Amino acid sequence: MSRTSLALSHARGLAIALVVSAHAVLAYLQYQPHPALAFASPPYAWRVVPIIDAQHWIGFDLFCGLQFVVLMPFMFFLSGLFVWTSLSRRGSRTFVRDRLIRIGIPFIIGVYLLMPLAYYPVYRVGAVDPSWSAFWAQWKALPFWASGPLWFLWQILVLDVAAAVLLSLAGKRLVHAAGKAVDFPGRYFAALAAVSILAYVPFAAIFNPGDLDQIGPFAFFPSRTLHFVVFFFAGVVVGIGGIDDGLLRSDGILARRWALWSSLTLVGWVAWMLLTALAMETAPLGIGPVPHVGILADLVFALASMAGCSAFAAVFLRFSASRRPAAESLSDNAYGIYLIHYPFVVWLQYLLLRSTLPAVAKASIAFAGALLLSWAIASALRRTSIGALVIGAGRRTKSSTDRSHREKVGRPAGDRAAGAASPS
């Protein structure tokens, strides 16, 4: 595996761990936009924040705010990054078939099996009859089928299919244009910033950032859906330009500018939070909402997301391009962890409700417990034939490793790493 692919693989593992951490601390945020309402009452805020604990810490609000700016754009970017490599190697039909198996099947199993288990404790918090049968009756009566964090999967599947169709129909001209785009990093980042603003600001003016809409099992954030599409195809463009020889070279311009991108991200994050506070009805210092400042906050958010996505990649390209066994294990099991972790998070938060432990201790228990349990189960599943097919193979025997190595001789390092480094 090349240094670039190794760094991106490590970034993928940390990104999934951060997803688990974000879900683990949601119960302990100082600011909760919705009070804890009955399970069957709109707006069904428990889909985003399942458990609300009496213990809070403002630090978790800041932590989640930074993740809100950076994490999901980066995950969409990383998901698009290896699309061209996989399409070139497998062909569009095989690519789509593999994506249906690797993403479609886990989405169906996760939504219809794991999500009811994950949300059962949410129902129990205020239920008169806490039995499973009573929960199941209310669950089936809901006007949707809650999908939790698995909303990410169906959107990635749709985008993968769309990219396969687009790249198959567009021919060499689109591929050539995309490959040239990353030869001029300044133009690429300027274009990404402009498109990011256009894709986010108009929708953010209509919808609240935390609003979650749902049609059946398909959930989406209306203010950010097009924004996520932009970052996915930004990754596709960079992937066409070359993983190891393009913008993402481990010694390239992006890696060398890691400090600049990180600084821009932090400045943008702080500016977005301050502007958002000034746009609220309960603005600080009693000055009330400042007119039009919300539009400026949305503009800063779009730019900070672009900077944060670049910073996330740059830091790993600069500092994590060498082998680290723990990081490699986390990356290998990241997809399985993403699929499995949510029930553990919610149940641990529920079991800790009556504890008098401080918020930091509770969040640490929920995070560590969910991460370790889902990591262990994902590792075990990958050693089974079905698990290997759906979420990736586990450790192989020496003979199979040698045979696989002989089959891969002559293939580019980026091709060999595509399956390991792609988030999906």
Would you mind describing this structure in some detail?
- The chain is an all-alpha fold.
- The protein has one domain.
- Strand 1 and strand 2 form a beta hairpin.
- It is globular.
- It starts with a helix and ends with a helix.
- The C terminus is likely disordered.
Give the tally of β-strands.
2
Please mark out the parts with pLDDT under 50 across 5 or more consecutive residues, or reply none: 395-424
Q: Provide the spatial order of strands within the biggest beta sheet.
A: 1-2
Would you tell me the overall average pLDDT? 87
Largest sheet entry: 2 strands, antiparallel
N- to C-terminal distance: 18 Å
Which value, in Å, is the CA radius of gyration?
Answer: 22 Å
Estimate the strand proportion.
Answer: under 5%
**Count of all domains:** 1
The tally of helices reads 17
Give the helix level as a range of percent: 55-70%
Large-scale geometry: globular
Structural class, by secondary structure, is mainly alpha
Q: Spell out the helices and strands N to C.
A: HHHHHHHEEHHHHHHHHHH
